[in-house]
Amino acid sequence: PGLPPSVSCADAMASRGEPRVGLLARAFFCVGVSVDASGAPAPKLLLRRTFAGDGKSNSSDDQLVSVAYEKHFCFPEYVPGALTSLVPETHARPSTYTFALTESDGSQTIGFCRRFLPPGDGARYPIVTCILSKLPWFAFFWEALEPLDAHVWPLARPALFDTGGARPESTNPALPQNAHVTRYLTELCEREAPPPRAEVSASTPWHPPGTALPQRVSLYAPDDGATSSRVAATAARGVRFAPLLRGAFTDAQCCLALFAALLFERRVIISGVDAGAVSRAAHAAAALIAPFEWQHIFLPLLPHPFLEVCTAPMPFLVGVHSAHAAALDRLPKEEVFRVDLDTGEYTYFPADLDALPSKPRRALEQKLEFQIRGQNRIDDAAVARAFRVFLSTTVSAYRRHVVPETSERRVPENALVADGVWLDQNAFEAHAATRRTKMMLGNLRGTRLYEVFVRGRLEAIARDPKQTGLMGARLGNSTAGESVTGSLIGGGGSSSGGDAMSGLNSAVSAEAALLAYAAEDFQHELPQDAALTAVYRAGSASAAAGAASAAAATTRAAAHAAKSAAWGAKTSAKMFDAFVGSARAYGTKTYGNTSLAGSTVGMHGKSAHRGNYGAFEGGHDDDSPVGGPARSAGAFVGVDRFRRDDERRQSLTEDASASKPPPAPSTATTAAAAAAAALARRHNSSPGGLSIDVNARAYHSGTPSPTAPAPSPASNFSPTAFSPTPSNFSPAGSASGFDSGTGTGTGTRKRRAKK
User: Fold this and answer.
1) Which pLDDT belongs to residue 672?
2) Spatial separation of the C-alpha atoms in residues 488 and 109, rounded to whole Å
3) Contact assessment for residue 90 and residue 122, using Cβ atoms and an 8 Å cutoff
4) Considering only CA atoms, which of 381, 433, 363 is closest in space to residue 234?
5) Contacts (Cβ under 8 Å, ≥6 apart) of 649
6) Residue 3 CA to chain centroid, in angstroms?
7) Which of 204, 200, 197, 148 is nearest to 25 (CA)?
8) What Cα–Cα distance (Å) separates residue 648 from each residue in 214, 380, 636, 740?
9) Would you say 317 and 268 are in contact if contact means Cβ atoms under 8 Å apart?
10) Per-residue DSSP letters for 722-746?
């Protein structure tokens, strides 16, 4: 699904890294152990057959069989000349393991081995049957070899016991044409590689027809990931991660360290006494870094003649039998990651682990720990998916930085270029999510596996028909320095300016199309992988959104506080204006003169506030928080004083009226003039006269009048001595004062206003 119509199924299979062309297998052979004249055991070739498809022998396949036998790949623990490297056994369960052979063109052929004891009593040497194939189908070929245990021994026995080489089977150990084993293997292996999940059946001629015994063996080709995912393909092929997570290991630290060492192309040696566990661990280690592929020396089982490979200066991944541990220790080695499956001991590079991003690493470690402790059996698909999600969350953003050569951006000299597109590695690293992610991308930059992966993805992007630019310029057809052909949809200009604009638009559109139709992360990533990746990215986005929301809330709180402060200041001014207006209203009501209250015009440029004294009863003052307890009117500056002065004036007025009544004016003009004169005398005769400041403070006048005449209590406190006109108000809003002294004429007592 999703493949372009022009891409065939075979091309799709090849693009996924699975060779689907050629025969299912290349050769079959059988190796036993014989004793030479010195009494030392040595491997011996017993049977062989190649599958060329036309019934003829293939020289390259024959050469592979000879190398596998002569270099002792089927018995990796064998040491030439040693008497104890191969020992006979009385009881042994069949075991399976693999080895790999690399040809001159770089392609690998895998040998699938099955070791078992032949029928008989007493101690005897094991026999190994092996199938050579380019397909990494572990479970498929091990299952195909299982029915041959009882039928290979009769054919291999004559050559095994012919120590002198007199029998023709010793010189030419070819599998007989009419043997049941030959018919079975020819029908099974001499065919084209089947499609994924297809049934492959072969007859079992050793079972007589007409009996209840099975007449055919049915096998099924594993999924290669072309229609599902790489994760399912890894588990279906038979890759097992148990050797790296169970046994002597108690946690996932060794597996993580091994993953980091392979990712940065270190030299890796896996050793153990069980050849099957060593080879499975090597294949599992190579599968950890998928979709990257190990590009260097890969030998799941390293026989004794090839131990010097461990001294190579280039990266390698090899498995070594524990029988060669002493010889391996004597070899000069530098910076080697070594893990022992038997003891659980391993060496690692701290810098490699520090380069792994923290959050994806912790998530990966938790998943591996769950597999180690939470289940009786390792879920190989879940383990493969865990490592794939780690790489997807850290490396899959490369597609955002793939640029066509038609763009205006200059291609660096060391850039990875393929079919007209290139990866901007500098921008890729600069836009890394974290410091460790950037460090990891920088370490991957110089590795061969990263280069091969990126070039493969660039070629896939360039081949995809969807990558054609909207202006008609195909991304894969243009190179650096060449003009982009094609015209604008719906016509184009012929002038030079039009051509330049058309080329620019084509480049921009090509780059936009490249980003819009970039390949999916790591070739058909599982929906579960994509969902986990989305959850991881959504978590980071949610954290950023939470931080932004908190900042916005803080800003709103600050704005609200500023607004509240402004409201408080405005309300305070209004409340004080109301207080002054209430005091003026009280003075007007009591004395019939507005000069006591003053004016607030000079303060706010508005008319004076008018109110009554009771307006402050049960209200809030300007210092009270909104919603706080109310203060009584007596708590305001000067209000208590007004109450006491009022009582005192009434008392003094009554006493003065009784002793000397004031002269009654004949007319209103005379009364006004008399009141004005009395007020002037009152002001000049008060050395410590008290004044009212409408700007929120009552204070004593600091300088007594030098020409103060003798006070007249009767005129000072007579209600008719105040002028009802506003002539006493100053333009700036100042207020006239009144004396608070007694009516005895003995002097003026100063009162300090409450603050």
Assistant:
1) 54
2) 51
3) yes
4) 381
5) 717
6) 29
7) 200
8) 130, 102, 20, 9
9) yes
10) S-SSGGG--TT-----B----TTSS
Is residue 483 within 8 A of residue 464, CB to CB? The reply is: no
Contact 394, 435 (CB under 8 A): no
Q: How confident is the model at residue 582 (pLDDT cuts 50, 70, 90)?
A: confident
Q: Residue 603 and residue 579: Cα distance in Å, rounded? A: 14
Is 60 exceeded by the pLDDT of residue 350? yes
The burial of 308, by beta-carbon neighbours within 10 Å (0-12 exposed, 13-18 middle, 19 or more buried), is given as exposed
Between β-strands 297-302 and 316-321, what pairing exists: parallel, antiparallel or unpaired?
Answer: parallel
Q: Which two tokens stand for residue 697?
A: 């403070």
User: Which secondary-structure segment (H or E) carries 480?
Assistant: none
- What is the Cα–Cα distance from 71 to 268, expressed in whole angstroms? 22
Q: Is there a contact between 408 and 464 (Cβ–Cβ < 8 Å)?
A: no
The C-alpha atoms of residue 219 and residue 146 are separated, in whole angstroms, by 12
Q: What is the mean pLDDT of residues 4-21?
A: 37
Question: Hey, what are 535's tokens?
Answer: 């959850």
| Contact yes or no for 649/722 (Cβ under 8 A) | no
The beta strands (E) that lie in 368-444 are given as 402-404, 416-418, 421-423
Q: Which amino acid is at 461?
A: I
DSSP bridge pairs for 320: 271, 302
**Residue of 348, 349, 389 lying closest to 365 (CA atoms):** 389
421: β partners: 404, 418
Mean pLDDT within 472-487: 32
Amino acid at 574: K
- How is the beta sheet containing 421-423 ordered, strand by strand? 402-404, 421-423, 416-418
**Which residues are CB-neighbours of 382 under 8 A, at least 6 positions away?**
367, 371
Q: Which two tokens stand for residue 487?
A: 């015209």
